[in-house]
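User: Before I run my own analysis I want an independent prediction to cross-check against. Here's the chain; please return only the structure tokens and, at the end, one sentence I can use as a sanity check.
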Amino acid sequence: MINKKFGLILAAGILALAACGEEEQPAANEATEVEEQESAPAEEAAPEAEEEMPEEDADEEEPAEDETDEASAEAPEAMSGAASALLANGETTSFVFNEAGEFAIFCEPHPVMKMTVVVDEDAEQMDEVEIDIADYEFVEETITIAPGTTIVWTNQDQVQHNVAIK
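Assistant: Structure tokens:
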């Protein structure tokens, strides 16, 4: 996803450079004036564009990190019938488990993928637990957590999966 954003930013920067070069060309008829004015703005425009690109990249990276923090902070509550959207490779989803009990987790497109989340008052308190989805499996078959814990699943497969609660 970051690679797609970088590609879009790079394409926008190239288009901006092309547009700047066209706008800064003078309308003079004399060839010497045109050559002098074209070379100076082109040299000045290139460093400015190079300086702007890293700033844009930095701006794009920071919200991505914030989105991950916000996603776990704003995770929907785990309840029967809840399901995430399909996750591409590297994408995450999360649910917060507030109520004690046993939750059957599965992947809707691949119902043989199953795991159990046990929410127990006596379990060790943790804010967040990360679980990978790989090789058409949840890497944990059963996990015991305390109420209020958020589980974040990351799809490591090249196919799409989701997290659904029975």
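Sanity check: The first strand starts at residue 92 and ends at 97.
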